[in-house]
Amino acid sequence: MTRTEKLLAELIARPSVNPAFLPQDAVGPRCRAASDDQQVVPTRFGEQRVADFLASVARRAGLEVEFQKVLPGRANLIARLLPRHKIRQTILLAPHLDTVGADDSQFVPRRKNGRLYGRGACDTKGSVAAMFGALCDLAKAKQRPKETEIIFAGLVDEEHVQAGSRAFVERASCLSPSSKRARDRRNTCPTVLAIVGEPTRLQVVTVHKGSLWLELETRGKAAHGATPWLGKNAIHEMARIVEVLETDYAAWLRKRRHSLLGAATVNIGAICGGLQPNIVPDRCAITIDRRTLPGETEAAVHREIAALLRSQQLHANISSAKLAPALPLETNPKLPLVQQFLRSIGQTHPVGVDFFCDAAVLSAGGIPSVVFGPGDIAQAHTADEWISLGSLDRGKDWLLRFLNSLP
Ligand SMILES: [Zn+2]
Question: Which of 47, 127, 132, 338 has the fewest Cβ atoms nearer than 10 Å?
Answer without folding.
Answer: 338
